Amino acid sequence: MRIAIVGGGIGGLAAALFLRQAGIEATVYEQAGSLREVGAGLVVAPNMVRPLARLGLAERLPAFAVRLEAAWEFRRWQDGRVLFVQPMGEACAQRYGAHCYVAHRADVLALLQQALPPRQLHLDRRLTAIAQDGREARLTFASADGSVHAVAVDAVIGADGIHSAVRRLVAPTVEARFSGLCAYRCLVPADAAPAMALRPVQTLWLGPHQHLVHYPISGGRLVNLVAFAPARDWRDESWTADGAIADVLAEYAGWDERVRRLIGSATSTKRWAMFDRDPLARWTDGRITLLGDAAHAMLPFFAQGAAQAVEDAVVLAACLAEASAQTLPAALARYEAIRRPRASEVQLMSRGREIGNHLPDGAEQEARDAALAGGDPLAQSAWLYGHDLDADLARVP
């Protein structure tokens, strides 16, 4: 069985690894000349840790990731008063069968790449054309030196991200809706950060019209900081576009001094405009299907983009393990039937959360804070963190 995976990010590599575990050696084609992950911090939630354990990789997480002892530590913007904190640690492991970690995206990508035989990864392959008939799919790739590479396969998995080239061939164009927000992301050396930012805690500072998240990564050597603020005239949806620390400080004028010190300790920032998209009506067309952000790009407020891509990979491999080259289209359709409802739910639940986070001071904000104080996010997240993929596979024939 010949499988091509377009895109060498977390979702693409995870798909190749789960397919390999199922006895299928897929080939990953990545347009970059070297495998690298843009971005910074990543929440490795329990529903991502459990699949990594199936690959024998979860035990390697403590070498670079930080295990959260608390999450959803909500603080008031002006003075840092704690509104609510959810203990994690053993409580999380007992409830969901796995801990919750935070990590640098590059470290997670490296973990997956190291587990994949080099022959299964081809770099410097930019997709330029794709076609299919009843027997196979054909792809054409271009390299930086001008060479062209043609490949014939039984199935194509489009794992090529939010601006997917494969998606344009499978699904109708989805209009991107501007959220009115942008996000600044920074990495701060631990020795320059306030002590409270070094704790194994995911902290969210809530304030009028914006909020800010931080947690330690890279074994505690760095602090990942993401600041969500009004976008003003910024419309660039790119993780590689440069921002300015002075702009971030200006947005957070008047906030708790620890927030401003954390921002001021960063030497650079990236800035991206945040766009929302409706769930796709379909992921699959014959021998071509989508996975990860290519299928269900979502706003980051549930921190589930990578976890949902890994869930996709588990189900895709299980469906293809029972298929032949002739029955692959039906197997891909089954994969979509299982995964699209779940991923679409997470996608839709991820939108709108900033409204509650960004309430101006007043009666609504006070009611929100009171609700936070009486909440139990660990229990409320059972649908997300405790989801049973094997039950999904058993339910959809």
Walkthrough of the structure:
This protein has one domain: FAD/NAD(P)-binding domain (3-Layer(bba) Sandwich). It has 15 helices and 18 strands. The relative contact order is 0.17. Helix 1 packs parallel to helix 4 (105-115) and helix 9 runs antiparallel to helix 10 (328-349). The radius of gyration is 21 Å and the shape is globular. The mean pLDDT is 94. With 397 residues, the protein is an alpha/beta fold. The strands form 4 sheets. A 7-stranded mixed β-sheet has the order 6-5-14-15-16-13-17. The protein has helices spanning 10-21, 46-54, 89-96, 105-115, 167-170, 245-251, 257-264, 293-296, 305-321, 328-349, 353-357, 363-373, 377-380, 382-385, 389-395; strands spanning 3-6, 27-29, 41-44, 66-67, 70-76, 82-87, 101-104, 121-122, 126-132, 137-142, 148-153, 155-158, 177-189, 201-207, 210-217, 222-230, 270-276, 288-290. Strand 14 and strand 15 (210-217) form a beta hairpin. The longest helix has 22 residues, at 328-349.
